[in-house]
């Protein structure tokens, strides 16, 4: 159980600044995810924590001790790799015991720890197999058991599921989550998959171009994005360009009874599942933006359907849960939609979320 | 090699605890020291010597002017090109034909064909020349046999003979390289071509050959460089067919009236020719990297009827003629001799002579080649690691420098080393060490390249995993990387042993009476007409070679093309 403090980490490769003063705190026992597109610096940050790369400036502190001066092998940090990195010349059991041997643990203890590890990742009975006899998912389980066996202060995982197919990915994801909760090891998890991040994390750190965009629980990041980048990267989001009309928000031909921010170039945003499709017969007209949209395309996905609509304010995607037969027949027609104010987020030109509501 | 060994122990002794310090820096420094001492310095000396007038010692272009104006040198340049291009063309025709026949048709005894090809490949280089003399020389067995039934064929001596020998000696390189490529051509591509209306023959030239062009040009380059660097063959059966390698050796070797400046200039021209071909090959193949992720293995046809017989005859004829020299040497080593003349009957007297009077070369060969291979493996593995895992300008430049020995013929390397270490500050002439040094620097690049290739197959995260589990970088390298690339390294070591044992050209420049090696002794025996002794020594060398090759194949799981 260890707390991790990352203080103003800077890192450049040549002229490219890949980390621009990153500050983060990870609480003891927390499952903390670094989420962002490739090139955002998440993997570099992870490798700096592990000690495989050195920061140009800043500190890595674990439980109050600065560890960034120590070489990687003295940091007591477990790591799970994207390509598994299971030693192909050693059996599964020898792989799990590998780190314990470096710690000169007695044979009996090693055996007990290996057995426990095999049980934990559900590979009982496969201890004497070679990695080449295992599937990708099983190999990654070995990688996980091996890293956990040394009971590290921190567990780092670098896109551990991205080489697996979809079904295995979900299974192993659940197992990783359960094991981490059981052992309570502080975990930093790197991924570019936002769904994975939402499913597995206590908190998510959304990164872009070497900068932390938002840190929050999965609910906060999804439902209350504080930055435009986080809103766009996590889940799907409709963005509508807006400007100011005498202090009021104007979108397309509509001027809304809502106060506009001082600077132009702001946007309104709403998630597809919050767009109300069909003509609402009741409700306060002032509580929602009402639009007409031509249905260009309907994609039926079983439990939901996606509508791509051309509206006077631009293209809007709406999601309808459990669509009825009639609603699937409207392709090419014009229908009414509503964007409820309480689901709309306003992002300033700088990308910050600000409160949106009826002007008083 | 000493530098790298020292760097290794220092790297492993400590330093990892220090922050931000990479112990591989020491290996890098050691590697550059080796390259400077054994490659740059000696070759620089030759380059300088080539600009020095032999009589006055002044800097001048006389030697180069002579090279390009005197008739005998111009002839040597022409002959070298002729031998190089001829040997290359012959080897390509034989090698590609054999590769096509064996990869596209079900040929009986494919394993036997591969073994014979490898025997031809690893036979001591000048056994070929000598065995051809025994068979087709002035008093050659085959020639006399044919003469007795009234058929008169010309002797093997001269340009034709040299080119023929090169073609049959070097075709296995082409065969092994292009077989691999032909086996990797996507069948669907060829079928698509036939579906578009190309006849099989046109498809071969329009689709298949262009697809394997990178392999063909690489094999062509290799056989050209090997042909123009070869010294034994033109020396033994060229007669008045002088090439640059033989001229340089004669000019350098003659104690009195030797002309080191001229020999150096000829050496430089020889290097220049190889370099020109390397650059040409790069131009041809630069854009030709075809990768397909969908792969269907090529179709292997049944070879039946007359066509089947013909294909078998072609395949077996090529490999049998290629292996003929080795077979001949073994047979002749058991023949009774009286002085230099063979007598009817079987005898072990040639071997008795080896054991009683000429055992020194055998021991020298074993000692020198093991020593050089040990050094090659240690240095080659470390350098291979640097090149593949520490990409930076200094390692890239090191990798580039290690290309140089590929284009420096053995004779030239020998001349360079003796020029440099013949006197102060480092006088090593006449020691076994110079012979080891020459073999070491000539073969180091192969070992470094194969180690780098093996490491490229290995994910860097394996070592990082070990480090994160508490192993220092040096221990992670020893516990994870070395066991994983170990079999590959050992297989490479055995192949280096083969080339080290068979090294003739550089040793010939560097040996003295007490440091004579088997290839040198065989060469001298052939020159003296002691064919019985030459056969016995050749057979011993062949057995050692085949044993090493067999070991290498066992270790590498029969992936021959990756070894040779």
Automatic annotation (TrEMBL), chain A:
<keyword id="KW-0067">ATP-binding</keyword>
<dbReference type="InterPro" id="IPR027417">
    <property type="entry name" value="P-loop_NTPase"/>
</dbReference>
<keyword id="KW-0547">Nucleotide-binding</keyword>
<dbReference type="Pfam" id="PF00005">
    <property type="entry name" value="ABC_tran"/>
</dbReference>
<protein>
    <submittedName>
        <fullName>ABC transporter ATP-binding protein</fullName>
    </submittedName>
</protein>
<feature type="domain" description="ABC transporter">
    <location>
        <begin position="4"/>
        <end position="234"/>
    </location>
</feature>
<dbReference type="InterPro" id="IPR008995">
    <property type="entry name" value="Mo/tungstate-bd_C_term_dom"/>
</dbReference>
<dbReference type="InterPro" id="IPR050093">
    <property type="entry name" value="ABC_SmlMolc_Importer"/>
</dbReference>
<dbReference type="InterPro" id="IPR003593">
    <property type="entry name" value="AAA+_ATPase"/>
</dbReference>
<dbReference type="InterPro" id="IPR013611">
    <property type="entry name" value="Transp-assoc_OB_typ2"/>
</dbReference>
<dbReference type="Pfam" id="PF08402">
    <property type="entry name" value="TOBE_2"/>
</dbReference>
<dbReference type="GO" id="GO:0005524">
    <property type="term" value="F:ATP binding"/>
</dbReference>
<comment type="similarity">
    <text>Belongs to the ABC transporter superfamily.</text>
</comment>
<keyword id="KW-0813">Transport</keyword>
<dbReference type="InterPro" id="IPR017871">
    <property type="entry name" value="ABC_transporter-like_CS"/>
</dbReference>
<dbReference type="InterPro" id="IPR003439">
    <property type="entry name" value="ABC_transporter-like_ATP-bd"/>
</dbReference>
UniProtKB/TrEMBL annotation, chain B:
<feature type="transmembrane region" description="Helical">
    <location>
        <begin position="531"/>
        <end position="555"/>
    </location>
</feature>
<keyword id="KW-1133">Transmembrane helix</keyword>
<dbReference type="Pfam" id="PF00528">
    <property type="entry name" value="BPD_transp_1"/>
</dbReference>
<feature type="transmembrane region" description="Helical">
    <location>
        <begin position="366"/>
        <end position="388"/>
    </location>
</feature>
<keyword id="KW-0472">Membrane</keyword>
<feature type="domain" description="ABC transmembrane type-1">
    <location>
        <begin position="77"/>
        <end position="281"/>
    </location>
</feature>
<dbReference type="InterPro" id="IPR035906">
    <property type="entry name" value="MetI-like_sf"/>
</dbReference>
<keyword id="KW-0997">Cell inner membrane</keyword>
<feature type="transmembrane region" description="Helical">
    <location>
        <begin position="113"/>
        <end position="136"/>
    </location>
</feature>
<feature type="transmembrane region" description="Helical">
    <location>
        <begin position="81"/>
        <end position="101"/>
    </location>
</feature>
<feature type="transmembrane region" description="Helical">
    <location>
        <begin position="400"/>
        <end position="418"/>
    </location>
</feature>
<feature type="transmembrane region" description="Helical">
    <location>
        <begin position="476"/>
        <end position="498"/>
    </location>
</feature>
<feature type="transmembrane region" description="Helical">
    <location>
        <begin position="424"/>
        <end position="441"/>
    </location>
</feature>
<feature type="transmembrane region" description="Helical">
    <location>
        <begin position="156"/>
        <end position="186"/>
    </location>
</feature>
<keyword id="KW-0812">Transmembrane</keyword>
<keyword id="KW-1003">Cell membrane</keyword>
<protein>
    <submittedName>
        <fullName>Iron ABC transporter permease</fullName>
    </submittedName>
</protein>
<keyword id="KW-0813">Transport</keyword>
<comment type="similarity">
    <text>Belongs to the binding-protein-dependent transport system permease family.</text>
</comment>
<feature type="transmembrane region" description="Helical">
    <location>
        <begin position="309"/>
        <end position="334"/>
    </location>
</feature>
<feature type="transmembrane region" description="Helical">
    <location>
        <begin position="504"/>
        <end position="524"/>
    </location>
</feature>
<dbReference type="InterPro" id="IPR000515">
    <property type="entry name" value="MetI-like"/>
</dbReference>
């Amino acid at each position: 159980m260890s707390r991790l403090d990352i203080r103003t980490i800077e890192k450049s490769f040549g002229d490219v600044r890949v980390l621009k003063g990153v500050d983060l705190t990870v609480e003891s026992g927390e499952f903390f995810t670094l989420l962002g597109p490739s090139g955002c610096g998440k993997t570099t940050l992870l490798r700096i924590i592990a000690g495989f790369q050195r920061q140009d400036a800043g500190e890595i502190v674990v439980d109050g001790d600065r560890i960034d001066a120590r070489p990687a092998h003295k940091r007591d940090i477990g790591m799970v790799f994207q390509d598994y990195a299971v030693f192909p010349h050693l059996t599964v059991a020898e792989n799990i015991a590998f780190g314990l041997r470096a710690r000169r643990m007695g044979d009996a203890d090693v055996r007990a720890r290996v057995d426990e590890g095999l049980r934990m990742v559900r590979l009982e009975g496969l201890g004497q197999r070679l990695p080449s006899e295992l599937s990708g998912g099983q190999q990654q389980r070995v990688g996980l058991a091996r890293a956990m066996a040394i009971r590290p202060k921190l567990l780092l995982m670098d896109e551990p599921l991205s080489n697996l197919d979809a079904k295995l990915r979900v299974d192993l994801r659940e197992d990783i989550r359960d094991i981490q909760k059981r052992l309570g090891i502080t975990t930093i998890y790197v991924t570019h998959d936002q769904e994975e991040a939402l499913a597995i994390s206590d908190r998510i750190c959304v990164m872009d171009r070497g900068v932390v965009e938002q840190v929050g629980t999965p609910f906060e990041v999804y439902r209350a994005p504080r930055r435009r980048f986080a809103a766009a990267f996590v889940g799907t989001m409709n963005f509508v360009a807006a400007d100011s009309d005498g202090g009021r928000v104007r979108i397309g031909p509509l001027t809304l009874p809502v106060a506009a921010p001082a600077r132009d170039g702001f946007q309104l945003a709403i998630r597809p599942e919050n767009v109300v499709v069909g003509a609402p017969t009741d409700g306060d007209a002032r509580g929602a933006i009402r639009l007409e949209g031509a249905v260009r395309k309907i994609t039926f996905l079983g439990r939901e359907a996606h509508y791509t609509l051309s509206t006077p304010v631009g293209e809007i995607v709406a999601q309808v849960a459990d669509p009825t037969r009639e609603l699937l027949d409207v392709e090419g027609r014009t229908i009414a939609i509503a964007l409820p104010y309480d689901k709309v987020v306003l992002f300033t030109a700088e990308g910050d979320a600000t409160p949106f509501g009826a002007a008083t | 090699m000493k530098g790298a060994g020292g760097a290794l122990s220092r790297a492993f002794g400590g330093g990892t605890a220090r922050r931000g310090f990479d112990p591989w820096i020491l290996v890098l420094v050691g590697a550059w020291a080796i390259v400077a001492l054994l490659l740059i310095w000696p070759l620089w000396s030759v380059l300088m010597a080539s600009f020095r007038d032999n009589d006055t010692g002044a800097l001048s272009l006389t030697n180069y002017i002579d090279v390009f104006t005197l008739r005998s040198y111009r002839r040597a340049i022409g002959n070298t090109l002729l031998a190089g291009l001829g040997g290359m063309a012959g080897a390509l025709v034989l090698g590609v034909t054999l590769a096509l026949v064996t990869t596209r048709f079900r040929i009986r005894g494919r394993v036997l064909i591969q073994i014979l090809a490898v025997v031809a490949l690893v036979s001591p280089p000048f056994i070929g020349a000598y065995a051809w003399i025994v068979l087709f020389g002035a008093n050659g067995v085959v020639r006399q046999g044919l003469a007795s039934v009234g058929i008169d064929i010309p002797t093997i001596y001269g340009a034709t003979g040299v080119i023929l020998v090169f073609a049959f000696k070097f075709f296995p390189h082409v065969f092994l390289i292009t077989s691999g490529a032909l086996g990797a051509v996507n069948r669907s591509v060829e079928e698509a071509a036939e579906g578009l209306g190309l006849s099989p023959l046109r498809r071969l030239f329009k689709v298949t050959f262009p697809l394997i062009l990178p392999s063909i040009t690489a094999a062509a380059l290799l056989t050209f460089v090997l042909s123009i660097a070869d010294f034994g063959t033109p020396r033994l059966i060229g007669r008045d067919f002088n090439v640059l390698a033989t001229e340089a050796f004669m000019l350098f070797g003659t104690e009195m009236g030797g002309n080191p400046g001229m020999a150096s200039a000829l050496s430089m021209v020889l290097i220049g020719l190889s370099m020109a071909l390397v650059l040409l090959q790069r131009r041809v193949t630069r854009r030709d990297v075809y990768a397909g992720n969908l792969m269907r293995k090529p179709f292997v046809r049944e070879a039946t009827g007359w066509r089947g017989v013909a294909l078998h005859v072609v395949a077996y004829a090529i490999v049998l003629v290629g292996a003929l020299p080795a077979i001949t040497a073994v047979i002749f080593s058991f023949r009774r001799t009286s002085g230099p003349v063979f007598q009817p009957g079987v005898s072990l007297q040639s071997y008795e002579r080896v054991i009683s009077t000429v055992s020194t070369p055998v021991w020298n060969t074993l000692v020198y080649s093991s020593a050089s291979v040990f050094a090659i493996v240690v240095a080659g593995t470390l350098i291979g690691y640097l090149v593949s895992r520490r990409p930076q300008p200094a390692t890239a430049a090191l990798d580039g420098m290690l290309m140089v020995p590929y284009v420096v013929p053995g004779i030239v390397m020998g001349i360079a080393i003796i020029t440099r270490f013949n006197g102060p500050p480092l006088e090593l002439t006449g020691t076994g060490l110079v012979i080891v040094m020459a073999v070491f620097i000539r073969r180091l690049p192969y070992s470094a390249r194969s180690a780098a290739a093996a490491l490229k197959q290995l994910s860097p995260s394996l070592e990082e995993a070990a480090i994160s589990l508490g192993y220092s970088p040096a221990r992670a390298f020893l516990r994870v990387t070395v066991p994983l690339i170990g079999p590959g390294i050992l297989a490479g070591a055995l192949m280096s042993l083969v080339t080290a044992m068979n090294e003739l050209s550089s040793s010939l420049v560097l040996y003295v009476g007490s440091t004579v090696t088997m290839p040198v002794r065989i060469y001298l025996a052939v020159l003296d007409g002691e064919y019985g002794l030459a056969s016995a020594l050749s057979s011993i060398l062949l057995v050692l070679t085949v044993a090493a090759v067999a070991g290498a194949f066992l270790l590498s799981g029969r992936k021959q093309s990756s070894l040779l």
